[in-house]
Structure prediction request, 227 residues.
Amino acid sequence: SQTIHQWPATLVQPVGSPLSLECTVEGTSNPNLYWYRQAAGRGLQLLFYSVGIGQISSEVPQNLSASRPQDRQFILSSKKLLLSDSGFYLCAWSVDGHTEAFFGQGTRLTVV
Amino acid sequence: AQKVTQAQTEISVVEKEDVTLDCVYETRDTTYYLFWYKQPPSGELVFLIRRNSFDEQNEISGRYSWNFQKSTSSFNFTITASQVVDSAVYFCALISTSGTYKYIFGTGTRLKVLA
Prediction:
């Protein structure tokens, strides 16, 4: 069966520090991969999605970036965090653009 | 443009009451998929149901039921005999086959079931 792993679960980082969140999927090949952000009490904002290695689509211009160095690995990064980057970050995968997406357990990021 | 609207920000009900969560969507595509997810306090989104645009049959799964109506662009979710464990944020989502792979989510409805 397929599983998705996302880490760390919680993270407290100072303003201006770098960020690296990692997400890996097991049990499937060539998944579509997604990064969403959920601000406190808000809905889900799509940040990036990828349909293949090295193929990254950005939805929101900001100081975040994403990379897909391997088929089942999706990384969210920042060189310098802002206070506004605080939130709950969710990684997700799907087989294609027609089926349901499955989500990781999320990373709660607090920038101080 | 595609959009999902969940007008109900928060609903409170007493245990055993029935509750309906509304979802209205917008898309110009004729082929699309709709989803409902549950987000318990732990934060992980749990998939509940997927429905394609050509299947308007209502679906029932235990205490959960879904009413899909293309005429009104709605995909509503009803919980019968609600329980405290149903307390969560519920999200409706849409994805179309127009060549993008983006799941568009509504802003969610927070359901509080009081004992």
About this structure: Chain B has no helices and twelve strands. The CA atoms of residues 40 and 76 of chain B lie 19 Å apart.
